[in-house]
Amino acid sequence: MYTSQAMPESNTVKLVLADGALKKEFDGVLAFLTDVCGISNAFISIKMEYKDLIISKKGLKNLDTPNKIEYFKELTSKQENLIFPDINQNCHYQLTGYKKAFTFFAGFPINPSHQLISGSLCLLDKKNDKLNKKELKIIRQCISQIESTLALSLKNSELKSQLNETQIQFQYFIENSNEIIYEHTLEGVITHISKNFSASIGHTPHDVIGTNNATLIHPEDTKMCSDYLNTIKLNKKNNETIIYRILHKEGHYIWYSSKINLIEKNNQQFYIGNCTDITKFVEKQKELQAQKEFYETILDRLPTDVAVFAPNHKYLYLNPIAIKNKELREYIIGKDDFEYAKHTNRTDDFAIERRAKFNKALQNKETLLWEEHLFTALGEETFHNRKFTPVFNENGALAMMIGFSIDITENKKIEKQNKQLLEENK
């Protein structure tokens, strides 16, 4: 509710009052009212902090504030219509500086629904006058229009202010993020790239905007990136990331992971994406891969079967001694013995036994030894000494199970032959 107390001043209110379109509309309202009512002068004022500000007026060239009008204070304090056909007959009031010029005054409070803005609409004339019912009705309609316009303008200004604040926050987030935001045309011409691009790649945005992104992409990755973009263009959406290399200003390449989507602006399509420097990750992966290959080289040359299982008893690794057939050895990775038995058209008896031994070693949390009796796909009888050794992580959960096996078939044959010889010599 508007009172004689100072209304809170805000940047939003200032934005409303600075709106040239708003003043133009209010000038039109005053021109219409003064013409309909036959009044020479009028103004619209808004209450600001410690003062009332005239935001539109007709006539009244030298009037900069309504506070010069003594009875304006009563209008603002009572919030009621105040009409004096002849101010000179109301000796309680006087028009300081304007006493000789005006005798008619009519003031109407403006109270839009929003609490931050309230004000008044005032009409003044040098001749005595009265307002008839039709004129009063038109004034009330104009006040409703003014109130609605003020409330709408204030809401729009608030939204603009919030949007501007959001844009500033978003820009701050982008510039301080590890991710680079960029945009380029379907032809690859870079139209935008965030400033943090400089810290990662050496080039400034000014260096690359307007150039084709193909000049920065590693030659070996160019076709892959082109195919990736064509797929996005065809499907109109994308959930996949792509890993590629970008040329640093100093001449070396940086690894990036990027996700790109297709957008439309001003009836033109663009690719917009975000990318992250993953060079350290890639280098670490290469280091781990090198270590893996080193240890696998050693394991591949051990004269015994070696297998490594995931916690779900799926194969992670087998050396060539375990399965000599390379194609079959590659097939079994990520699978278990039940799938292996089905694939090789064998019964799953051995798979059932191995699963039971796997679970027992896990339950006892210690190495388990046993002798396994098998028949090959060709029906040949074989014997193996097998071992399951569980490996646990720092949390006590199973990280992997390592399996070892020694083929003792020849030993068994010799034992059988020796036994037969003993029987014959008895």
Description:
This protein is an alpha+beta fold and 426 residues long. The protein has helices at 11-17, 20-37, 72-78, 133-175, 197-201, 205-208, 222-235, 279-300, 326-332, 337-343, 349-364, 409-425, and strands at residues 41-48, 51-58, 82-84, 104-110, 119-125, 179-185, 190-193, 242-247, 253-265, 268-277, 305-309, 315-318, 368-375, 381-392, 398-407. It has a five-stranded antiparallel beta sheet with strand order 2-1-5-4-3, with helices on both faces. It has a five-stranded antiparallel beta sheet with strand order 7-6-10-9-8. The longest helix is centred in the middle third of the chain and has 43 residues, at 133-175.
As a percent range, the share of helical residues equals 25-40%
Radius of gyration: 44 Å
Biggest β-sheet description: 5 strands, antiparallel
The class by helix and strand makeup works out as alpha+beta
Low-confidence stretches: 1-9, 94-99
Secondary-structure element string: HHEEHEEEHEEHHHEEEHEEHHHEEEH
Q: How does the overall form come out from the CA principal axes?
A: elongated
Task: Round the mean pLDDT to the nearest integer and report it.
Answer: 82
Assembly form of the protein: single chain
> What is the number of strand segments?
15
Strand line-up of the largest beta sheet: 2-1-5-4-3
Number of helical stretches of at least 4 residues:
12
What is the first-to-last residue Cα distance?
122 Å
**What fraction of the residues are assigned to beta strands by DSSP?**
25-35%
